[in-house]
From TrEMBL:
InterPro entries: AAA+_ATPase (IPR003593), AAA_lid_BCS1 (IPR057495), ATPase_AAA_core (IPR003959), BCS1_N (IPR014851), Mitochondrial_chaperone_BCS1 (IPR050747), P-loop_NTPase (IPR027417). Keywords: ATP-binding, Hydrolase, Membrane, Mitochondrion, Mitochondrion inner membrane, Nucleotide-binding, Transmembrane, Transmembrane helix. Belongs to the AAA ATPase family. BCS1 subfamily. It is a single-pass membrane protein. This is Mitochondrial chaperone BCS1. It comes from Lodderomyces beijingensis. Its main location: mitochondrion. The lineage of its organism: Eukaryota, Fungi, Dikarya, Ascomycota, Saccharomycotina. It is found in: Mitochondrion inner membrane. The keyword Cell inner membrane does not apply. It catalyses: ATP + H2O = ADP + phosphate + H(+).
Length: 444
């Protein structure tokens, strides 16, 4: 007969249980588990593991709770305007600790052809610690993996700022500081925007404003245009009440180097506006892009369409040419008509070939003001001479006498500028060299 295993004493169990089932079970459990060294050790370990896991979770939950209660995050995506402002602000902020910097280089080509380069060291991707008004902030600049902003080809980025909950009001103050810094850097400057994919991006560093007086147009022209633009800018209510789109188009036409572009830049400076430049002869500008760009012009900007006649070579965008075909005439008209904005919209167009323009473009609503900016008149020659050689009235007369004798009619103001710049401090040498103006292509 098989005997019960010795280690389990069933009699004892029965006694202890007083015959009840629970008593039997509990004393059985005690007997099997507690008195068994293997079970006891395993159970202990299990309890310990469970305890630790629960504790860990508790700590994690607790820290998450604390994090939520005590810290705040602010995320600035690279799409946002304040993104660049913030990076620039941070690069100048004194109380910061960062070991990763990245460089942003801007190259500016000046009117005289000189090129200057600016390096600004901005915080690179990674974590940085800054102190702002007594509070610590953790700045984390992150690239989001392989995702590319398809429109600009740059990686998507975000900057996340973390600080204590009680300091959250500092975010606002800091962003305001960053914005003010950006505005201050642009004070007295004109920002030039160019198209970058379907969006407008500042081109190089903001330029110093060009003074209106530095562009010498024929008598009264500049004054009339400025007055017209000013009148337009103060007539918002008038347009809105009559339901007329609040926009005005200007066309400056004339030979190369007569000061069209320079005048528009000076005008923008005078009005405290920025300029969005679009070159319609640019190859990869399509109708769609043009339309999009014209409907997303930054505030307080003049839209400048250069070489507007370039759109007139083609009436349609053929499929084979596709991407590289440039803007079509109908595309330009649609874009001009489609600009629907509550803000004012000032469009300046320039061309060297007004005769190529289709009358459809010139109808009011698209072009409301046309003006010829021609080669230099005697009035301009005199004013330019005296601007370069102040007070030299006599020499100016001498210069003009020679100029008249040569019967020069097709001298551009750019040519005159070239001659005067070459003879910066020597008006007599300029007089000697008047003949050179006969050849418009001469390079000094
Ligand atoms: N009327 C002017 N007064 C002062 N400077 C002028 C004038 N015209 C031209 N210039 C000078 O000549 C250069 C070229 O001028 P700008 O680019 O304005 O000419 P433009 O009329 O736009 O020529 P294009 O038709 O080829 O675009 C500039 O450096 C500018 O300073
Ligand atoms: Mg020009």
């Amino acid at each position: 007969m098989a005997q019960a295993p010795q280690s389990i004493d069933f009699d004892k169990i029965r006694k202890a249980s007083d015959g009840s089932i629970t008593g039997m079970l509990s004393s059985g459990f005690n007997e099997i588990v507690m008195n068994n060294p293997y079970f006891a050790a395993g159970g202990g370990l299990m309890l310990l593991g469970t305890g630790l896991a629960v504790a860990r979770q508790g700590v994690m939950k607790g820290s998450g709770f604390l994090y939520r209660q005590m810290l705040v995050d602010l995320e600035i995506p690279s799409k946002d305007k304040s993104y660049l402002w913030f990076l620039e602000w941070m690069s100048r902020h004194k109380h910061r600790r960062s070991r990763h910097l990245s460089v942003e280089t801007s190259v500016v080509t000046h009117d005289n052809g000189a090129i200057t380069t600016n390096f600004s060291l901005v915080p690179g991707p990674g974590k940085h610690l800054i102190r702002y008004k007594g509070a610590f902030m953790l700045v984390n600049r992150e690239r989001s993996g392989k995702m590319l902003d398809m429109t600009s080809g740059t990686p998507f980025e975000t900057v996340t700022l973390t600080t204590l909950y009680r300091d959250r009001h500092l975010f606002n103050e800091m962003l305001r500081d960053a914005k003010n810094l950006a505005i201050k850097a642009n004070e007295g400057k004109t920002v030039i925007f160019t198209s970058w994919g379907p969006e407008w991006r500042p081109f190089g560093q903001p330029r110093s404003k060009r003074l209106l007086g530095s562009v010498i147009l024929d008598q009264g022209i500049a004054e009339d245009v400025v007055e017209d633009v000013r009148d337009f800018l103060t007539s918002g209510d008038w347009y809105h009440k009559r339901g007329i789109p609040y926009r005005r188009g200007y066309l400056l036409y004339g030979p190369p180097g007569s000061g069209k572009t320079s005048f528009i830049q000076a005008l923008a400076g005078e009005l405290d506006y920025n300029i969005c430049i679009l070159n319609l002869s640019e190859n990869n500008l399509t109708d769609d892009r043009l339309n999009h760009l014209m409907n997303h012009i930054p505030n307080r900007s003049i839209l400048l369409l250069e070489d507007v006649d370039a759109a007139f070579n083609k009436r349609e965008q053929s499929a084979e040419q596709g991407y590289t075909s440039g803007v079509t005439f109908s595309g330009l008209l649609n874009a001009l008509d489609g600009v629907a904005s509550a803000e004012e919209c000032i469009t300046f167009m320039t061309t060297n070939h007004p005769e190529r323009l289709d009358p459809a473009l010139l109808r009011p609503g698209r072009v409301d003001y046309k003006v010829l900016i021609d080669n230099a008149t005697e009035y301009q020659v005199r004013r330019m001479f005296l601007r370069f050689y102040e007070g030299e009235e006599e020499l100016c007369n001498e210069f003009l006498a020679k100029y008249r004798k040569l019967a020069l009619h097709h001298v551009s103001t750019a040519q005159l500028q070239g001659l005067f710049v070459y003879n910066k401090r020597d008006p007599k040498a300029a007089i000697e060299m008047v003949e050179t103006l006969q050849n418009p292509n001469i390079a000094f």
